[in-house]
Queue: 3 jobs
Job 1
Amino acid sequence: MFREIDFKAPAAALMLPIFLALVAVGLAGFATSVASGNPILTGGSLVLAFVAFICAVGSFVVEPGKARVLVLFGTYKGTIKTPGWYWANPCFTKRSVSLRIRNFETQKLKVNDSHSNPIEIGAVVVWKVVETAEALFEVDDYEKYVTVQSESALRGLATSYPYDAHESGQEALSTHTDIVSHALKGAIHDRLAKAGVEVVEARISHLAYAQEIAQAMLQRQQASAIIAARGKIVEGAVGMVENALELLSQKGIVNLDDERKAHMVSNLLVVLCSERSTQPVVNTGSMY
């Protein structure tokens, strides 16, 4: 396994006087050789100028947020991350790697949730390279590796949770976004550890039932909402009836036996729980 090595390269500014001195000596020697007609001096001057040019090629720049990975004849020598102007052996291959935070959005994947319901899901992954040697030498193409492994982790996550929580306390994709995002980030991080990549954030960006069951699931959600609303209405109506009977009894407005109480409770529940406005009926006689 490749491990990142901090390479100490001299600043190119320190080497600049040497380059200029070599050029100056080469030009002076060339001028002298032309005046004297000495071919050996002319050849030496040209060789000196060529050496100065080759050495100048060894200078390179490291930009902020980027790194340079140095390879000599197929052997990894080290990485420079500090921005600046440097000089290294001209034979080094200097590969640039971005250390900046990047993000991408996965494709909208069609998978089955833990209840085998087909759903569409997508995610946004924020990542950056932290280990340049692993990123370049452990995997073939680390950017493509990040994309493929992120989608694989998203598929695995979707099969571990239901779309909706049908039981109390159950974790679901649509309701427990923070828990799901944390699990997705961990799953992607485990897959990308060998590529020298750190996952900064991962969140669900798209979540929906697949088209073939979307209408049926919408009706199911509406039915669940109606049942929940009805439960609240009935609970409130029972409380109101209880308060009404208690107030009537405390103030002595009317004395009701069990049968009349049952009749009154029935009427009040009908009025309070009905979807439509009720029509009052005036009873001028006895219920008996």
Job 2
Amino acid sequence: MMAQKKLIGITIGDPAGIGPEIILKSLSYFTEKYTPLLIGKLSIFQQYNCLLKTGISFYSSDHLLANLTEAGIPVLEVLPDESMHIIPGTPSIDSARVAMHALRTGADLALGKKIDALVTAPIYKKGMQDAGFAFQTHTDFLAHHTKSPDCAMMLVGKGLKVVLVTVHIPFRDICAHITSETVYKTIRTTSRSLEQMGIPQPRIAVCGLNPHAGEEGMLGTEEKTILQPAIDKARRQNMHITGIFPPDTIFWQTLQGKADVVIALYHDQGLIAIKTIAFDTGVNVTIGLPFLRTSPDHGTAFTIAGKNTANISSMVHAIDFAITHAHHCVIPNE
């Protein structure tokens, strides 16, 4: 018997950015493995379809997902009573509202197990907040919406996996947010999530905060006073922590097989490593949610929106990761 295709929800992101372009140009990949459900506005996808000359056939799918057998790509409409024309490269309140409603719709579908995984195209954070969105990022919203306070951001690319303890906070505030408890929770979420992805007892390496991981206390004590208690607690719970390592060596060592994943303490400590080796192919994965969410590891790129020049590699990898790691669910046939 042929396995049922996975149903992957793909949100439009800010439609004035490159989201619609990278979505449409990625649809020819993995066609035998999944059914895409686009979440946004049909008129906008049709607008970009004409602009990019991709020649895709769409149809409107109702909220029960009952007509997924039709020919073409299904689009689940948001803001169905509102018509709008989006100008590529020109963000607006309307484009932000489309992104916001698409994200909420996708999250609800995933929570209700109507889709197997959620892939999100890039949003414009400032525009979303101007439109009334009370969160800085996709991750912040999804954590709140799903009541998942311990979720974390994992970046994946070219054989490297990096999970962040702190994300989008000013550098001057980082130390206040790095505590034994936040480090332990990140380790626990990482261990559980990688086990669900098929890595039994994953080997976890933790970045030090100070140069040379503190040099035995000569260059700082946070490794001993904050990180080590978190590691000791995780080890008592049978998690496999390989140790605390200087961040200028551990990423290379992980690529050589020393660990399965690196815990980075702050945004740039982890993302510089990922973007150096996988700038065009990195994937952002939210771990610790009740469903799998991935996204390309880049922004809206308004300056090239609608010009048919956007690199789709990161979106293709985000969809592939979602297909590979999504938990299969039964789509109701109502």
Job 3
Amino acid sequence: MKIKLVPFDKSKVLLEAQFFLKLAIPLAAAQLSEIATSFTDTMMMGLLGSKTLGAGALGSTTYIALLWTSSGMVSAVGVLTAIALGAGQLQRIRNIANQGLWLTVLLSIPIMLLLWNMAPILLHLGQEESTVFLTQSYLQAIVWGFPALIGFSVLKNLVSALNRPQIIMIIMVNGIVVNVIANYILMFGKLGLPALGLAGIGWASTLTLWSQFIAGMSFVSLDKELRTYQLFSNWYHFDFLAFSEIIKVGLPTALVFAMEISLNTFIAYLMGYLGTVPLAAHQIAIQTAGIVFMVPLGISYATTMRVGQKLGENDPKGVRRAGFVGIGLGVIFVNIVALIFWIFPDFIAGIYLDTKNPDNVEVVQLAITLLSLTAVYQICDGMQVIAGGALRGLKDTRIPLLISLFSYWLIGLGSGYFLGIYLHWGSIGLWFGLVLGLASAAINLTWRFYGKTTVKV
């Protein structure tokens, strides 16, 4: 069997890029606003003192890990909607939307129970009792917002697949303002309300999440374009086959997301094992990388939708073109960011710490070194998440799960532990491991998409 390499039509590539950016820019902005909300929460926790900040960070980390895993499952709603849109199957779009609401309920119940009862687990993991008490007050407030969070994620995937992501961007940007105001009122007890401290930040998040979900549902019902799909018209209808397909496509993605976040958590534990200086320097590098990562993540979502739409249209050339346009635009962005990291690591470190303070010299110097490695990390991370998004658009999630398992844990953690701990390279060795793991994922996932979309004759 011969492989036929079909050259790209430049005019069609440019047209695809224009259409793609209309999807990608709002989705990237939405992801940035999500991390901006988390960042402002962390800053406002700091106003309540270092002990409250530590307890809040513990709760926030737990909550985000569960959110990140759940969002991987929910992403299947967007994949299947995009394919149905490309195929012109309007009834199927409505059916998938209904199953998305069922998924919201069935995901939320066990996770809410887990969050409500996290205290014994945290104590078993060796956390201080006073810290756990504060953390639990935060989790038992924000837990009520989890259904709204998953429901809004379903909406985000639906409307993005239907080419209306601007709605999500507007809602999430406004959500930052609502969250900050609610934080201030509830944590300090303004407008005659009691001062709730850290729990107030949790309740503010719950209020914000429900306001976003209600706003999203309102837009879906009022927007002229979306109204034609009659989404959620039979929300109570449960379709076992359609629901099973969502689980089949979404579960491997959820496991990939869980593996990635657990790898980063484990690396942080190893940094803590090496000492306070490596842990602090690592936090600067990984926090900065995490902010920038939101843009490739938004591009990844857009790539999933465009590949899915072209798959539904039964357009193999369009599928290949959409995937590589997404990867190409993502690579351009991460290379620009990598250059900034490479040239200005001292400036970036100065955002977090006073570089003139002698007490910070060790941390700043190590952070500068790690930020140089982060430049390469960004390129690999951006490529692998977008290539993974392209494969999700093909409903190809099982083999990417194995690739991710091999790359993250065997290559990434294995080489990182060998270099950082066994060879005593310290935090630099651990970061080399992260880079190698992501490079492996980027190469293998991109090669798989290339292979899946190459015409064979």
